Amino acid sequence: MRLNVGESAPIFSKVDLRGEVVDLGATKGKPVWIGFFRFATCPLCNLRVHQMISAWPRFEKRCRYVAVFQSPPERFEGFLTKHSPPFPVIADPAMELFKAYKLENSLLAALKPQVIAKTIEAKRLGFPVGALSPKDGAALRVPGDFIVGTDGKLKLAFYGTTVAESVPLDVADRQLAQPAA
Asked: Mean pLDDT across the chain, nearest whole number?
């Protein structure tokens, strides 16, 4: 059963890839946007990280962003230096956060035509595409995005309909523009 807007967000404390603690329970003052991704070498996920880095100046004063991947830390070799994300990236190979936030796997979500278009876009931008890239965890994991308000309640609970779908940036922008309840 999926999480819904208005519910309390699952609280966590994890160490990110830079060795810093990300403690959702201790975050005060700004909403927290949590983006869930598949594996570190996923071209679709790398495309979204690239988009988030480009869009970050639009969001950085209004929220804290945390990216969560199902890959173990060693799979991120070169990831931080290649992307240089200005936000924390958490490796969750035990899938504790994926389970807490009720993220799903779906073969149907991997076969939708939108996935092909996003894969072509990722390849055009130079992200490796192919069956040979190592996959950690479920290859059929469907991404999700959650915005946790300063009150600890979910302001947004977005579950993708394809393996290439994250919350549209304009939707997140509108959610973050709304005053806290």
From this structure: 90
